[in-house]
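STRUCTURE REQUEST FORM
Protein name: TRAP transporter large permease protein
Source organism: Halomonas tibetensis
Requested output: structure tokens
Priority: standard
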Amino acid sequence: MDPITLGIIVAIALIVLMAIGTPIAFALGGVSLVALLYDRGLPELTYFGETFFDRIAEFGFVAIPMFILMGAAVASSPTGRDLYRSLDLWMGRLPGGLAVSNIGACTIFSALSGSSPATCAAIGKMGIPEMRTRGYPDGVAAGCIAAGGTLGILIPPSVTMIIYGISTETSIGRLFIAGVMPGLMLAGLFMAWTMIACRLAGGYNNPMAQRAERMKQTVKENVDANLKALVRVLPFLAVVAGILFALYGGVATPSEAAGVGAFLCLALAILIYRMWRVDPIKLIMRDSLRESVMIMLVIACAEVFAYALSSMFITQTVAGAIADLEVNRWVLMGIINVFLLVAGFFLPPVAVIVMTAPILLPIILAANFDPYWFAVILTINLEIGLITPPVGLNLFIIKGIAPDISLRDILMGSLPYALCMVLGILLLCLFPGIALWLPNLIMG
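Status: completed
Returned output:
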């Protein structure tokens, strides 16, 4: 059987398994095992086990559970609530100010947690009910939180950037800083659309609802409360700034910086918010362990899947076919973007990166594209997958937070933000310096 036909059969089998609800890791591992047995026979089982464990034995992957623990400590504390209150004070007077402040809160919380689902859940639990109380349309309330949550995998420290760096052997510090300006650009685009959507809807910031809410406290009490909330958030922001400084300055490796950051965030959560009881700490550890194991299992199985495709020459055949396309390099980039977009519709970001980054990187380099710029392009494509069906993880998180909002309203409210991300990709293609200027300035 030729590699292309075999690749199509493998892809169909993988899609069928995921469609019937098989966990991503088990689907990848099961398809890989059957394909290897078909192609190589029983002796290949030895290499299956070796490949599975060798990949996740890399020391660089220690950074992943540490950053997840750091994010869990922040997400499980009232940090998101304090951040939300503070930004509402400063941005509340803008058109659609409360929705804009939610996106600002998502942007900053992304830097604290490094996780899109955690950002979406932490800010959404407070932001969506408050926006609906003040008269915001359901679509705007749900869409801005779903889109703002996607910034968690782009703004550093980002777990997906760590996985990309390890998979492609590129500098994780440079990858982190390459995501800063594009992340802020997307946040700006989200805020601009939110203000436009609120004006078009005409029902934002219901004056009576606002007046009734604000009369509960005097202006001075409101300002004092929000400033105190901001003071409680500043130490966490200082930890993130310290981590980035340690990485960019060459003071510490990603694993060392992640370990120190996790310890400091956990200690701050305990000291500032008085989380002395065993139950909150147990919850943080449980959530961190659960997400870490899930990600590492997906990485291991995706590596086995990539090994199976390579052993059957499927990877080489597809890469060669793409490389042999006699087209303009921007047409090639367009084809790759469509491929990544479709992959993001069905697979989580971690699986897409582990499976595709090592394959696509030689093609990107051959077409004279920068690998750090491409990491940002890839990540934004995967962000779109977080707010689009059929998987759309953030959509289902919003549905869990506000079950009385229909999935259709959540989706329709999120789609304009997906178009903002497409615009962001176009801007990065026209002006690559948006991603490359800052890392070149800081790291040379």
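Reviewer notes: The CA atoms of residues 4 and 16 lie 18 Å apart. Residues 205-219 have pLDDT under 50 and may be disordered.
Form closed.
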